[in-house]
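User: Watch each token:
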Amino acid sequence: MSNESWAIVAEDLRKTYGQTKAVDGISLKVAEGEIFGMLGPNGAGKSTTIEMIEGLRTADSGTITVLGLRQPRDARAIKMRIGIQLQTTALYPRLTVTELLDLFHTFYPGRTTIPTDQLIEMVDLGEKRTTRSKNLSGGQRQRLSVALALVNDADLVFLDEPTTGMDPQARRQLWDVIRDLQRRGKTILLTTHYLEEAEELCDRVAIIDHGRIIEMGSPEELVHRYFNEIAISFRDPAGGDAYRTLEGVTHVSTEDGRVTLYSSDVPHTMAGLLSQQNGGGVGTALRDLSVHNATLEDVFLKLTGRALRD
């Protein structure tokens, strides 16, 4: 694929603050029309990486091409073609939803924009169009910040934790908005703390930890790369050490009192669990039991040793 077919090309990005290497040699490419997810614990370096790509922060070294333009040399031209939704967006508190969207339209002279009424409909804020931003709920403010990022009909949209604070129904409504953007040929770079969201939406994801990309691929590829086993999950405050020798168990993870066994032989592993419980060896072994195929969350936990929310 030629460079003209990539919406983002970042090569060997580095950013240091004092003795801390926030970004330590990250390289990635995002294809045009792709939904690309960046996943990592807090402090992993993903926000700094994205801000350098957006032009909000300057890299110490490395090169960045956005929509065929160089960052920061072509920063002004890039800003006209991208949309940015920040996790914490400062909004004019006394302006209504409609007034804020109308204001943002004026920031893009000469560029085709999406009409305010259409944007309000897209993010389901029709009943709040005359409500001042200070009176919106957290989830409604998130939806408004997404709408503001779409005003200029951007070719490339950056969404930073876009569904934080939303109830499940609102979250899935926004997923539909994001999928519709992709159908219209837009490229989306997404960060999220919901691994189910990444699995649902992203064509590919990059898992970042300690300023480096430690794995990249489609959610399905990553799951198949790291797990051929079935996950058996249950609560046991004592942890997972007692289960490592059960037949079929290849790997054990413990997180917040929840134990997950990855088994290549579920019947024998379950028989061993039942035997331990019936023998009095583990009193709470099968509490809140679930059996499922491995997911992106399992991959993330295996690679980083912690849950994404940490």
Q: What stands out?
A: Residues 8 and 19 are 28 Å apart (CA to CA).
